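Q: Structure tokens for this one, please.
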Amino acid sequence: MPRLHEQWTEKYGAEPDEKAVETIYGAFEDSLMRSLEQYAAPKPDVVETVAKLREMGLKIGSTTGYTDKMMAVVTENAAKQGYAPDAWFSPDSVDGLGRPNPYMIFANMRKFQVPSVQAVVKVGDTVSDIREDRNAGVRSLGVLEGGHDAGSL
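A: Here is the predicted structure, written as tokens:
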């Protein structure tokens, strides 16, 4: 990201290298892991909606930008609050090819033996979700809580 690159070189007087990136990411990941439990609550009406979809015989698959390690925390805590997808896939599951690539959606399709993207509806709450959906060729429903990302589509 050009802005961050500029700030880095301004502050440290040198180009960022891989070691610096790994150090920063490690600090970020540690901080995120300590706080994830606090952010695992399902959005309003999700638990009830998923129950109705399951009554209709539908499967619930999930994709995420989190790692498997992060998802271990999130899925455990979300399940305690009533939400557990039938399957979920992270970038770890698809050789690191997360969003906006379509491969996590395709992994769900394979798991549930869904033969066509026309039979899939993906609901997401970020612009990267919708880009993933478009790249997979599935129907996409976007749920935005704020407005700043809406113009990025």
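A few notes: The radius of gyration is 18 Å. The mean pLDDT is 90.
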